Amino acid sequence: MPRQNFSSGYAFEDAYGYSRAVRVGNQVFVSGTTARPPELGRDAYMQAKAALAIIADALARTGADMRHVVRTVVYVIDLADAPHIARAHSEAFDQVRPASTLVQVGALTPASARVEIEATAIIHD
Fold this sequence. Notes:
By secondary structure, the protein is α+β, with helices and mostly antiparallel strands. The chain has one domain: CATH 3.30.1330.40. The chain has helices at residues 11-16, 44-62, 82-93; strands at residues 3-6, 21-24, 27-33, 69-76, 99-104, 115-122. β4, α3 and β5 form a beta-alpha-beta unit. The model has no long low-confidence stretch (mean pLDDT 95).
């Protein structure tokens, strides 16, 4: 199966040496994604919505969409933000209901990020 790498044009992808998304066969892996300015300076809900929009765009580039997501991992720096992030996640995935893990971490990059989300999708149709 051929491997396809997809960039979103974010400068850190080249600096760090990673792809926003990788597709192998019918599987798509979207890297951990944070909001970007101006949403990066906003609350956890708005940051989560922005990160999910970037994920949706990455999926579209691979030929997938949000309905194909089977798993998310959500990293937060403060569990007090969990209800706000859960609201954004539910809005994006209410009908899809992927498996998901929520993990508190000490910090994220960039430092003003409150949430980072990664996704795995399987194109099943």
